[in-house]
Structures are given as structure tokens and as C-alpha cells.
Amino acid sequence: MAGMDEIDHRILAALVADARATYAEIGADVGLSAPAVKRRVDKLQDSGVIRGFTAVVDPEVLGWNIEAMIDVYCQGRISPAELRAAWLPIPEVVQASTVAGSADAVLRVRARSVPHLEETLERIREAAAIERTESTVVLSRLIERG
Amino acid sequence: MAGMDEIDHRILAALVADARATYAEIGADVGLSAPAVKRRVDKLQDSGVIRGFTAVVDPEVLGWNIEAMIDVYCQGRISPAELRAAWLPIPEVVQASTVAGSADAVLRVRARSVPHLEETLERIREAAAIERTESTVVLSRLIERG
DNA sequence: AGTGAAATGCAGACTGT
DNA sequence: ACAGTCTGCATTTCACT
């Protein structure tokens, strides 16, 4: 985005802290009226700085206890857009990135059980032209932020 | 949480999709009145299933353009708690997990530039008794959720 | 869990700087 | 261009059924 001043950054921080905060509350924090805050938030969304608003849910509570990282090796060249389209419908895929390393992409997957993880792996492999995958199971989550 | 029925799950899904959706909108989706939805959301928050609501911000725009995943190989046995304590003060570390694989831990790091990434790597290595690290730079973020 | 009413917050148009 | 005020309308929130 072109001009992002101090106030925009403070509005962003407020929304990251609580996405359901009212415009008036944010305005009180940053010293602006509610309509002024809304105008800025709208611009921030239109320009792509704010991608959206989500609820952060405790995965443990829902029984999605097991997590794994999957290195994916593709056959030939597949565009990032194709990979994204292939994996987006799989809800177990929490994170996907293309990387500059020996692997082509790295996924982060959450599942309820080992059989569930295995089934998810199968669906990931079927979704695109994939040569092989290498999975490493997460033992404990030390840090989670950003 | 004790009793989480189908409707609770659908409310969760709606809030994950858009944390600023109104209770009336969610109620229309799940077949409940707005006050009923609010009561369920409040309970979901009190019981810890919903940890909060945040805005998802494009990191590129804020200048934290480069991201890397770091496989860490430790010397001897280090407890997860020690690793956490060592890396928590480093703000560039966005995610850290111990894993069951050839590496002992995997970090996800965000930096403003390659020199900044290098400096962060140095600090990560100094923070604990580490044998060696293997970094892979992220080319593009395909999916980011959960 | 639904209903209805009061309080609150939102979104648009308008004005001033 | 950007902030403030006003206003009609939607939403939240409470008491009650």
C-alpha cells in the first residue's frame, strides 16, 4: 500500500489483537472518530494489507491433536497456482508453501489420528502430480505467533 | 468443552471464515436466532475453544518479505522447555516445534532481508547448544489458515 | 431457544479544513 | 484528500416467555 502512516499501523495492531473490536473502540485508542477508522479499515482491506478476519480456535480442544510437516517432491514443473488450487479444498492442510531447496513444497497438516493423517496424505498426493512425499510428525508446539 | 454439537461446529466454521460476521448472518446460516448464536459464541470463548479473533495481515506489505524454515540438529539431549526459552526472545521466530525425524526441531522465521535472516540464524544458533542447521527459503505462501 | 425493546454500533451523505 | 458530525438503519444485548 502507498501511504501507511502511524495511525494505520495502530489500527492494524488493534484489529490483530481483537478483530471484533468496534470502530469506536479502535478510534478511542488511536484518536479518531469511528467513521474515520472505518474508512481506513476499508482501504486497508481493498489494498490487500488486511486479508480478512478469523477466529483463532484451539486445535487441541477439537481433537485435531496430531500435526505433521510434509516435504513434497513434484514431477516436472507445476505452477504454484495449480498446487494451491489442488490443496485448498483439503481442510487438513493448514499451511502450504513453495520452497527453494531440495523439496518443491512444504505442507503443514493437522489430523485427528494417525489413520486420518494417512488418509490426508493420500488425498494430498492424488491432488497433484507428485513424485514422493516425506513426512515428519510434530512432537510439541514450542512457539506459535505472527 | 463438554457438549459441542453440529451447530457449534458450523458457528465456528463461520467465524473462522469471517470473524466480523454479524450474529444475524451466522444465525441465518445455522438456523438460529442472533441472540442464540451470541450465547453459543460466548460459551465457546469462555470454555477456551475460541481463543480470540484476529485480522490476518499480509506480511509482505509490512516489509517482512523473506521467510525461511530451519531444521535444527542439537548436540545431545535438550528439553523442549529449554529450546522454547532460548528462542522465545527472538521475535523473528514465528513458529517452533520439536519433531520426530532426522532433525530435532523445525523453526519458521521471518525477516526483512537476507542479511537480517543471516543475523537471525546466528542468534538462533547461539541461543542453544546446536550442532548444525539447514535452512530452506520460502518462495511463495500458497495457503495460510488455522 | 425465541421474542421484543432499548441501547449501541454501523454506513452513507454532507461539511469544513 | 482526510477528519468530523449527523442521521437512518442494522445489530447487539438484555429481560422475559
SSE layout:
Two copies of one chain form a homodimer.
Chain A: H1 6-17, H2 23-30, H3 34-46, E1 50-57, E2 66-74, H4 80-87, E3 93-100, E4 105-111, H5 114-127, E5 130-144
Antiparallel strand pairs in A: 2-4, 2-5, 3-4
Chain A binds a DNA duplex (17 and 17 nucleotides) through helix 3.
Structure description:
The structure is a homodimer of 146-residue chains. The first copy, chain A, has 146 residues and is of the alpha+beta class. Chain A has two domains: 6-46, Arc Repressor Mutant, subunit A (Orthogonal Bundle); 66-137, Alpha-Beta Plaits (2-Layer Sandwich). In chain A, 38% of the residues lie in helices and 32% in strands. The first copy, chain A, contains five helices and five strands. Chain A has a four-stranded antiparallel sheet, with helices on one face. In chain A, strand 3 (93-100) and strand 4 (105-111) form a beta hairpin. In chain A, helix 1 (6-17) packs across helix 2. The longest helix of chain A is centred in the C-terminal third of the chain and has 14 residues, at 114-127. The first copy, chain A, starts with 5 loop residues before the first helix and ends with a strand. The model of chain A has no long low-confidence stretch (mean pLDDT 95). Strand 1 (50-57) of chain A pairs antiparallel with strand 1 (50-57) of chain B, so a sheet runs across the interface. Chain A binds a DNA duplex (17 and 17 nucleotides) through residues 22-24, 32-36, 38-39.
